[in-house]
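Fold this complex.
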Amino acid sequence: MRKVRRFVSQPSDKGNAVNPFDPLGFWRTTQDSALDSWSKSMVELVNSQPYAEATARMLDSYLSMSIPVRKLLSQTMEQTLSQFNMPSRTEVISLAERLTNIEMRLDDMDARMDDILRLLRSVASAEASVAAPPAAQPAARPARATAAGAANGATTSATTGRSRRPRSTSASAKAR
Amino acid sequence: MADSAVKAADAAAVHDQLEQIERNMSTLQRVLTTPYPVAQTPKEVIWTLNKASLYHYIPVTPPEQRHPIPLLLVFALMNRSSILDLRPGSSFVEYMVKLGYDVYLLDWGTPGLEDKNLTFDDYVLDYLPRAVRKLKSFSGASEFSLLGWCIGALITTMYAALRPDDGLKNLILLTAPLDFTDKQCAGFIRWVNDQHFDIEKILANFGNMPGELLDYGAKALKPVENYITNYMRLWENLHDPRVVESWHAMNTWVTDLVPLAGGAYRQLIIDFYRNNRLINGTMTLRGERVDLGNIRADLLNIIATEDHIVPPAQTEGVMAAIGSEDKQLLKIPGGHIGMMAGSSAIKRTWPQIDAWLSQRSGD
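Structure:
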């Protein structure tokens, strides 16, 4: 019965004798004592110059063989796609690069818009303080993000955060 | 009579064991074939650019208990940033949010072939400053703290040196690969310095450095641990849900591979690993020289003493070159990932980060 009990992983397994039914049992008992030294010798091996050279050579031969094949495949595919009036991978990549550039410009515009809105708000607030008697001035400072989102179980959402207003006017750092 | 009672008990035990076997096999299948739901701390996307996203974690403490200076986390370009938010109860992000930090995370995303020419110039001078700009605009804070881990630490270090007036108050580096003076200190630096390691041929073939090759490189540094002991540990602990869940989450993260943009990989190998440009003072990004002496932010440089990916030698020597007046080197027992995501991180590493940062977060 004890043999059967040790067939499966359970707390009583630890420290017990060999379980002939455990497929890893024999492996474990024979290797446990030597595992540390084995690990150390492997670390020494992979840190050696001959290993570095052997790995680099293997990678190099693999790449030398695969580059011409890839080139051929790529050319064939491009010709085929062209015949079907379909965009090639190169063209799609070029388009994606252009989109990223446009995205960067939009990001700059977004930041400038933030700056302008902040300035407008500070001007409006200054005008209001001049026009209104001191006692009537509202407490204009907006609250920061609260724990309400967490309480509601908020998860990832694709908001831009523009609904929250920044507290200071000093965030005008240029990206570049 | 006694005999039949013993037989009945044995039969019941056999039945129990068979059920346990079934449960274990089911557990094994589950953890090896399904992803763990990592990164569960509630968050919102506040900015995106190309594949990069800036997350803001929803605060859980009352405003008066929060630290006024926000904290931006930057992980490596390879692997997912979800290691910082691995699972509830074992998440650095969750830990810091509960302590009242306003936490942001810059996730680099997965580069496609259209990003193969992205370099550190782009990450340091385009992506990170734009994310910082958004963070400052969103939080309303004029100062912020940065925490960079691994290649993320390399990026944040160069950013701190090139943009010292951006409002960076505190800089925390975790296992930062900065100093490559010692060419024999680890396997990886030996491999990439070999004359047969042809970086141009790799990139001509793949465009970006494939995640699989990067993963092999990291795992081959400790082959027995990564390819054998790791799975033996799971097998031996299949009965223990705590170990299984932890293993499952870590395995999900480890197997979620991300390629590294070709241009950045070329720079990493040639400029850093081979020519050690950062320490030699010859590193330039878009014509600007990266001078570590320009860093003025308070610095906490954390080293994992048993790190085989970024050995301590690649981090320790940089302290003298950094210009900050308030700088501290902290050595923590553990490996490259285990130091921040292992079971002891919550008792050892995270409290030390909080202790250092809370004094410098404007309270």
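Residues 2-33 of chain B form the longest helix (32 residues).
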